[in-house]
Amino acid sequence: MTGPLSEILNLLGKQGHAIDGGAARQWAETFTPDGVFRSPTYPAPVRGREALIEFAAAFAANNPRAHHIVTNVCIAREVGTNECHVKANLLIVRTTEQDGCEVVAIDRVTTIEDRVVRHDGRWRIAERVVTRD
Description:
With 133 residues, the protein is an alpha+beta fold. It contains three helices and six strands. It has a six-stranded mixed β-sheet, covered by helices on one side. InterPro entries: NTF2-like_dom_sf, SnoaL-like.
């Protein structure tokens, strides 16, 4: 597979591994410098690189055994050669210990809708909207 979808899949994979591994700066760098993250789980949108770094660092610190699993990724609409809208499902899976056993549970299943743009020659997320679908 080549082309925008392949590059975007790679971007989303790196993004999930970054936030789950506590690499806040790398997670934030998957967004444009003025990128926006919106989720009904949080009271206000997160805007801009520094705020995205703080957000990702806090998430990782408070959720040390969370895993973001992105699936069903598709380009919902191509706006041009440098912009597209991507839709995917996101599962957040948590691993905990209970009575000495490892327990894996799906914390939530959501839909993510990203406006993805070329920034400095690479695909980056300009805006992510998480829904509760």
